TrEMBL record:
Species this protein is from: Arcicella aquatica
Keywords: Membrane, Transmembrane, Transmembrane helix
Sequence intervals crossing the membrane: 23-41, 72-90, 110-132, 152-174
PANTHER family associated with the record: HEPARAN-ALPHA-GLUCOSAMINIDE N-ACETYLTRANSFERASE CATALYTIC DOMAIN-CONTAINING PROTEIN, MEMBRANE PROTEIN-LIKE PROTEIN
Protein name: Acyltransferase 3 domain-containing protein
Length: 193
């Protein structure tokens, strides 16, 4: 998040589009190269070490299997690098699809908070409907660590489908909030949500 504020400066009037693109490409590729160099040593950057595997795809998966919680240096490099490259390549993207995506980008913190509550509410409902009980889904327990939730879960295809449904279902709320932010710019704190 701190890097987001730092990189936000390059989207001000001080930077022209070509200079911004060059900065994004430079730091994006630098992050990826640093990830590869540091990860290949297996000495620093993450508690999970990679190991040789029977197949190339398994080797790749072992190599990129880094810790998200807490975020390791390698996790940050692996996620920030491609994100910066995407920003560089998609800045001038046009069309209906990209306009819809921009709605989420303009209210990203709002969407993040909203989706956490929506997903948690749905998880509590699903736990109740499948006989595990909503109280098993307390906020301070990881689902995979709770002995009360052994056997709880859904297929990956169902999870992806639900993810798409949630993104689409929250679109009108995000669009409304974006319009609200635009009309009420006198409230400075809205820019953070």
């Amino acid at each position: 998040m701190a890097l987001g504020y730092v990189f936000g400066v390059i989207y001000t009037s001080k930077f022209k589009a070509e200079a911004r693109r060059k900065i994004l490409l430079t730091y994006g590729w630098l992050s990826i190269v640093l990830f590869i160099i540091i990860r290949s040593t297996n000495l620093y950057g993450d508690t999970r070490l990679w190991d040789t595997q029977a197949s190339g795809i398994n080797l790749l998966l072992s190599f990129i299997n880094v810790s998200k919680y807490p975020p390791s240096l390698l996790y940050i490099l692996l996620t920030i690098g491609p994100a910066l490259l995407l920003l560089a390549f998609l800045e001038n993207a046009k069309g209906v699809f990209w306009n819809k995506i921009l709605v989420y980008g303009k209210v990203s913190m709002f969407y993040y908070i909203l989706h956490i509550y929506v997903i948690h509410t749905l998880a509590m409902l699903a736990a109740s409907l499948t006989g595990f009980g909503a109280d098993a889904m307390v906020l301070d327990t990881w689902v995979y660590m709770s002995p009360r939730l052994q056997g709880y879960g859904f297929s990956l295809s169902f999870v992806y489908l639900l993810w798409i449904v949630i993104v689409v279902a929250t679109y009108p709320i995000c669009r409304w909030y974006g319009a609200y932010k635009q009309k009420n710019q006198r409230y400075w704190w809205l820019s953070y949500v």
